[in-house]
Give the backbone structure.
Amino acid sequence: MKLPELSLAPMAGYSDAAFREICRQWGAEMTYSEMIAARAVLMGTAKLPEDACVIQLFGADPSELAEAAELVERRAVWINLNAGCPVKKVVKKGAGAALLKDLRRLRMIVREMRKRIKKALSVKIRIGWEKDETERIVALLVEEGVDLVEVHGRTATQMYSGGAKRDVFERIRRTFEIPVFASGDIYTPEDVEELLNKGANGVLFARGAVGKPWIFKATRLWLENRERYNPFFDERRATVLKHLRLLAEEKGERKAVLEFRKFIAPYTRGMRDAKEFRKLAMKLEDFERLYRIFDEFFSSSFLDPPGLQASRF
Ligand SMILES: Cc1cc2nc3c(=O)[nH]c(=O)nc-3n(C[C@H](O)[C@H](O)[C@H](O)COP(=O)(O)O)c2cc1C
């Protein structure tokens, strides 16, 4: 399989089936599921993706993770282990980035998972728990036969502060042959170009794709033709409305309205009268009304130049 260059990152609460589909339509070459607890897979309570995506698992127990990986393997393009999530709820159970504090456990987990699945196995890491230990961690993953590593260039204790390090990709490339995807502060085609030049084989768009799923197409056009791309409002409107419809199909109208709230600000960033619009949209509970006001808002904005800002939240 040719490695994808431009992927949608795993994002709990965001990279659900609806958003994955929207990103694919805008050129995402691969998408990752939200993180799924290995234990939930074993108990049969996990909501598993039905589309072709990378399935990300999290957990702390080697045999649980290996068994879960085996169970979901059939549905996944490949399996990804979350060894980078710094959120307290996850870390206190010994999962996510906590594995970077316990490299023996990380090794056991990867070894068990590797033994149990035939498809590719990737591991998403931060560069260390408290200090940059990239080489040590990647060496371990290479030794255990991991196929790909996704690196968010911050330590776990940094959470989201400071900038994501980019020199790690040059360092990894110098020392290892394993394919690497870059993550962290990727908002523009130039960010991607820089990371690919530093030796990353691909990138994961995370916050940079929220409210701006066309970033995949914009990046592809930039890399290939040095062409700038910014969709007109009719295309943005079609995207937002489709996203809403997909979400309703996936989760029902009521839940769709609530879950779409986190996309309202990102999708309307930089637009005229966005503040008033958001205030109204955030209050609505009725799907049809929300759908209609989005339709009208984007229709009446056709004279504005497309916003040029990167999407941040
Ligand atoms: C809301 C949110 C949820 C996330 N959920 C996950 C997750 O489930 N699994 C994971 O490996 N990373 C998760 N991440 C981390 C992202 O995949 C990415 O590595 C990180 O946001 C850095 O990229 P960015 O600076 O371009 O956003 C999440 C990030 C955000 C903002």
Remarks:
- Residues 306-313 have pLDDT under 50 and may be disordered.
- The CA atoms of residues 117 and 225 lie 39 Å apart.
- The radius of gyration is 20 Å.
